[in-house]
């Protein structure tokens, strides 16, 4: 596969170039310029196919011009020491648990693959890179864990002061070493803007080897497609019999997760479509509803990783659909969930199913329920992505259910560690000063 900017389809780059560039020089995002047909491989997967085997096969096929099979296997074996799990929900809803990785969030999949890929390339080239990434919560902890201790790589994470959960903050500010946490006076959109401005700043680009671990980076985005294929394989009653019609319901903030699913569909995954589930930060649902896109400052909610007012990956999604509103709405529908509805859903799911879910998963589950209510006689299956462990949101889950979630050891061990962060203004100047003083 080769890739080009969403703003200049004539400048073609390799996967390696896209990984280390992050954002295209023109400010666009890299997208595939070809559409490989993996439908035969998808159909060959069965309920018994291990997730690791799916990742190795897809990596080898997608990047065969740059990575031989041995390299693809090295990358995936280092990255995926954990797997998703598909569990039964209620009334046609199944839940794809993506929180079994080191930071207990779905972003472990993309971050681990990106870190492993970069390590593979850097070990061959003997050079150094500075990872610059913004987080609204889970990205930072996943990136911090995935890159901590990696040779030839330093990591700088920007997060909005007071706008991530206490546990999320501890996860990304307690590692030290090659991981630096910058606490930004502002919201996530400020953090994301600063990162974008840094990538197109000529002085910074000439003096530092900057790249990103946000979902703007293809090396993090593409591996998120792997678990869509895994979920499909678990739906199949047998290797030679297809499941019925199914949709994916995706809790969405920066829209990288949804983009990965859409890519998998273009490669032959037979998903009927997608439900973009958001909280009240609804700029994309608004576009899907009326064709008008109006970015605006994000509002703080219980599902904080989705508090995004100008999602980067929306540009990618529009590009995939040829900037056609009609084509996009033919594949993607929308649902918006409030905080009150989120809390009610968390409580109801625990009462009715004995299942504890985090706020983001609750948004997805309620959106899936609404979709099924609108299509009562169509015999559909909805796979809702469960993006984080409920233990990462102790306060709201306990408030909604009266039960305090058990914390996995990998989460509880960070609570007593001292926070190490640097408070900075929400400006490119403040970020540039830190980067040049630390790494130039």
Describe the structure.
This protein is α/β, with parallel strands linked by helices. The chain has a domain at 84-105 and 221-410: Rossmann fold. Helices cover 44% and strands 16% of the residues. The protein has 20 helices and 14 strands. The protein has a six-stranded mixed β-sheet with strand order 4-5-13-10-11-12, with helices on both faces. 51% of the residues are buried. The model has no long low-confidence stretch (mean pLDDT 93).
Mean pLDDT: 93
Q: Residue share in helices?
A: 40-55%
- Termini, distance in Å? 33 Å
Q: How many beta-strand runs?
A: 14
Strand percent estimate: 15-25%
What is the number of helices?
Answer: 20
CATH architecture of one domain: 3-Layer(aba) Sandwich
Q: What structural class results from the helix and strand content?
A: alpha/beta
Extract low-pLDDT stretches: none
CATH topology of one domain: Rossmann fold
Taking all Cα atoms into account, the compactness measure Rg is: 20 Å
Question: For the report, how would you describe the main beta sheet?
Answer: 6 strands, mixed
Widest β-sheet, arrangement of strands: 4-5-13-10-11-12
From the spread of the alpha carbons, the general shape counts as: globular
> Which assembly state applies to the chains in this document?
single chain
CATH class identity of one domain = Alpha Beta
């Amino acid at each position: 596969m080769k890739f080009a900017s969403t703003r200049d389809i004539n400048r073609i780059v390799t996967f390696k170039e896209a990984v280390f560039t992050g954002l295209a020089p023109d400010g666009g995002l890299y997208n595939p310029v070809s559409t490989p047909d993996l439908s035969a491989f998808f159909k060959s997967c069965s309920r018994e196919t291990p997730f690791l085997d799916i990742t190795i096969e897809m990596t080898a096929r997608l990047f065969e011009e740059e990575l031989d099979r041995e390299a693809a296997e090295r990358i995936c074996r280092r990255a995926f020491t954990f797997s998703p799990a598909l569990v039964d929900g209620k009334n046609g809803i199944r839940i794809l648990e993506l929180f079994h990785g080191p930071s207990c969030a779905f972003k472990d999949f993309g971050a681990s693959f990106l870190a492993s890929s970069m390590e593979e390339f850097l070990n061959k080239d003997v050079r150094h890179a500075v990872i610059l990434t913004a987080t609204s919560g889970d990205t930072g902890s996943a990136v911090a864990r995935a890159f901590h201790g990696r040779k030839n790589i330093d990591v700088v994470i920007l997060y909005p002061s007071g706008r991530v959960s206490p546990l999320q903050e501890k996860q990304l500010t307690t590692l030290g070493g090659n991981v630096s946490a910058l606490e930004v006076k502002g919201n996530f959109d400020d953090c994301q803007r600063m990162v974008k401005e840094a990538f197109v700043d000529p002085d910074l680009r000439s003096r530092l080897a900057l790249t990103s671990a946000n979902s703007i980076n293809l090396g993090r985005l593409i591996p998120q497609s792997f678990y869509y294929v895994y979920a499909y394989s678990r739906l199949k009653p047998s290797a030679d019999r297809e499941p019925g019609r199914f949709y994916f319901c995706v809790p969405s903030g920066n829209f990288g997760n949804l983009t990965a699913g859409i890519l998998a569909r273009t490669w032959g995954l037979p998903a009927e479509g997608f439900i973009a589930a958001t909280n009240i930060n609804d700029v994309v649902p608004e576009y899907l509803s009326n064709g008008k896109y109006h970015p605006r400052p994000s509002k703080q909610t219980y599902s904080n990783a989705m508090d995004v007012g100008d999602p980067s990956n929306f540009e990618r999604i529009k590009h995939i659909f040829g900037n056609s509103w009609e084509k996009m709405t033919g594949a993607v529908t929308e649902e918006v969930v409030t905080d009150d509805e989120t809390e009610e859903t968390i409580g109801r799911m625990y009462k009715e199913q004995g299942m504890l879910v985090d706020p983001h998963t609750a948004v997805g589950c309620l959106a899936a329920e609404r979709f099924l209510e609108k299509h009562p006689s169509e015999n559909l299956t909805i796979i809702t992505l469960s993006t984080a462990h409920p233990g990462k949101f102790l306060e709201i889950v306990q408030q909604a259910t009266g039960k305090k979630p058990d914390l996995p050891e990998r989460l509880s061990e960070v609570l007593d560690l001292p926070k190490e962060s640097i408070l900075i203004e929400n400006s490119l100047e403040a970020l540039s000063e830190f980067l040049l003083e630390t790494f130039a």
